[in-house]
Amino acid sequence: MNANHHESHAPSTSRQITLRGPAELADALPFMLGFHPSDSVVLVALHGERGRFGGRVRVGIPGSPREWSATADHLAECLVEGSARRGDRPDAIVVFLCQEPAPGETGRRVMERLRPFAQRLRTACGALDIPVLEALCISDGLYFSYCCPDARCCPPDGTPLALSGTSVMAASAAYAGIQVRGTLKDMEARLKPQGSDGDAVQRAALDEAATVVVPRLLATPTGALGRQETRETTLAVVRRLIERFSRPAERPATDPDAGRSAVPAGLAGLASGAATGAATADARDDELLTPDEAATVILGLQDRETRDRAAEWMEGPEALPALRLWRALSRRCVAPYQEYAAAPLTLAGWVAWSTGDEPSARVALGLALEADPEYLFARLLHQACNEGLDPESLRDCLRKERDARVTAEHASGQEPAPAPGSPTADVQDPRPVQGEPPARTRQQARRAARRTARHASLRAAGAGRSPARVTATRRPAAEPRPPRAAAARRTRTRRRGARSGE
């Protein structure tokens, strides 16, 4: 298997649309997924005599043909087992291979190069007693059929895809409010560093912040106060940034008190290369975030409890600014800090899922698992999103835990921090660092939150599903991931197995 993590999708309950032939199947694929699946293999389950669409799985096409056999077996098993868990094994499967030609390559050449992979997918499905009804290759604006031998309807040189927005599927999707968010490559680009000269500025800020933040996060007997101080500082910066991202676009790009005001070269210039659309919006967001602020939050989010509290910005008017902030922070995780992107990517995926944007959530969570395949929070969210569970169970868990924390802080005589969604007297000034509530009070609050989470997840998932798939966001605190850069890199091997960002 390659590093990509598969995505599964539950069947839709929307109005029925009848598709006839390979052309309409090829045109329907982006609407089924919510984006154009560039460089992907997609399997779609069909049910009943009329071939009703069911679940589907997607994964990036492995770069090495040696991985094709294992990938085919894995995808077929995932689709069949996922459909069986929902109560109905597929009666047939449709296979899509989507890849654009390399320089000097044609669409037909791509189709021929991927033919052995398509054949292996067909045999893998056949081994599970499920036939492949159609296998299509989509490349260079053409589709090719691996199953149809009739050159009159499926010529060897390919058939042009329908013009965008002219098909029955496109009209029905527009009527139903279904959006296609561009290509998978474009969606991933919004969550990755731009690879510009400004990376050096951000890298220097991360190196500088790591010398201060990482020692405070280390799980030493005397490190509790340092972790608490870092946690409060990080959340105060997040609170300030979300307020800044909430302001109208015409306001000044950077606040006077924002600290280092230089924006990495290349990020600010991104807007000049794209007058409209997502690139322009992302460039504007990049201007709102300074390298020092980004470094402080990225490193602070490696603490599990800080990340979980940041996940509370998940709904209401703060959700969209929080999503934009997590995306911007993901773009700032430059080499050698790529693994640190797992935390902001997971938060971006969580907010997207919480607000109903499942395609964007799957993309963000998939990238989080590429950054760190063992990142537990991303794995749980990815699985829950793929199984079509309701995010309200996790939202309720976070609300209960927030309320329990505020109650514990009141009981210990502290002034509680402003909760996400609540007004603040002065969002620009970080709160004074306070001591932690007594250990017994904290433990009681967490036990109450976990009980509520278990009950909520059981209601949402139904009998027989493990509540851990939805709500297990709490684990005993462990040592955070140290940075790879500079002197801290020497300690990485010793600490790799104990990280609090999971």
Strand-helix topology:
Layout: E1 7-9, H1 21-33, E2 40-47, E3 52-60, H2 68-85, E4 92-98, H3 107-127, E5 132-139, E6 142-145, E7 159-160, H4 168-176, H5 184-189, H6 199-217, H7 224-245, H8 270-273, H9 277-287, H10 291-300, H11 304-310, H12 319-331, H13 342-354, H14 358-371, H15 376-386, H16 392-411, H17 439-461, H18 468-471, H19 492-495
Parallel strand pairs: 4-5
Antiparallel strand pairs: 1-3, 2-3, 2-4, 5-6, 6-7
Which features characterize this protein?
502 residues, alpha+beta, 7-stranded mixed sheet, 7 strands
Detailed description of the structure:
- The protein is an alpha+beta fold and 502 residues long.
- The chain contains 19 helices and seven strands.
- It has helices at residues 21-33, 68-85, 107-127, 168-176, 184-189, 199-217, 224-245, 270-273, 277-287, 291-300, 304-310, 319-331, 342-354, 358-371, 376-386, 392-411, 439-461, 468-471, 492-495, and strands spanning 7-9, 40-47, 52-60, 92-98, 132-139, 142-145, 159-160.
- β4, α3 (107-127) and β5 form a beta-alpha-beta unit.
- α13 (342-354) runs parallel beside α15 (376-386).
- The longest helix is centred in the C-terminal third of the chain and has 23 residues, at 439-461.
- It is elongated and about 75 Å long.
